[in-house]
Amino acid sequence: EVLALLVLMYPLLSGLALQLHSAVTGSYVPGTHSIAFVNCLNEQIARDIARAIMDKKLAAYVNILPKSSALYFWKGELEESTEILLLVKTRTSKIGELSNYVRSIHPFEIPEIISLPIDQGNPLYLKWIEENVPRD
């Protein structure tokens, strides 16, 4: 029973230990923040989704990158289109909520919502992300 409880509590306890270490040492814990990529059909949809993400405080910063060409398989066929890409800077702990929310408002049947952890960066910028995205 105790072992099962410890196994279930491990993610929470390790997260708290990392936060404590970061607070005490002032150092950044790799992976605390992430960049999510979200593809959009056009600039208006991209702006609407970016604004919705910011209004929900699910990110500190969203870049809207200009139109790019895309090649992909859809329903067995090779497709070619243009799209706008969002780069969403947020806490890693918010990625699940961000993904669920974007899927609920995105017009695509299967929108691209993928993320990569931020390994290192400008400590002041990373702290700024933290200050602008509320904790869970």
What's the gist of this structure?
With 136 residues, the protein is α+β, with helices and mostly antiparallel strands.
Kindly list the characteristics that best describe this protein:
136 residues; alpha+beta; Alpha-Beta Plaits; 2 domains; 4-stranded antiparallel β-sheet; 4 helices; 43% helix; elongated; signal; CUTA protein; copper ion binding; N-reg_PII-like_a/b
Question: What does the secondary structure layout of this molecule look like, with pairings?
Answer:
Blueprint: H1 2-25, E1 33-40, H2 43-55, E2 61-74, E3 77-91, H3 95-105, E4 113-117, H4 123-132
Antiparallel strand pairs: 1-3, 1-4, 2-3
Describe it.
By secondary structure, the protein is α+β, with helices and mostly antiparallel strands. Helices cover 43% and strands 31% of the residues. The chain has a 4-stranded antiparallel β-sheet with strand order 2-3-1-4. It is elongated, with a radius of gyration of 18 Å. Homotrimer. It comes from Pomatostomus ruficeps. InterPro entries: Ion_tolerance_CutA, N-reg_PII-like_a/b, N-reg_PII/ATP_PRibTrfase_C. It holds the Pfam family CutA1.
CATH third-level topology of the largest domain:
Alpha-Beta Plaits
Count every beta strand, where a strand is a DSSP E run of 2 or more residues. Answer: 4
Structural class: alpha+beta
Q: Return the domain count.
A: 2
Following the backbone from N to C, one meets helices and strands in this order, namely HEHEEHEH
Rg computed from alpha carbons, rounded to a whole number of angstroms:
18 Å
DSSP helical segment count: 4
Examine the secondary-structure arrangement and name the CATH architecture of the largest domain: 2-Layer Sandwich
Largest sheet: 4 strands, antiparallel
Helix content: 40-55%
Termini separation (Å)? 28 Å
* Bulk shape: elongated
CATH hierarchy class name of the largest domain: Alpha Beta
> Beta fraction of the residues?
25-35%
Contiguous low-pLDDT stretches (5 residues minimum) are: none
Strand order of the main beta sheet, please?
2-3-1-4
Mean of residue pLDDT?
Answer: 89
InterPro entries: Ion_tolerance_CutA, N-reg_PII-like_a/b, N-reg_PII/ATP_PRibTrfase_C
Pfam family, one: CutA1
Subunit structure: Homotrimer.
Family: Belongs to the CutA family.
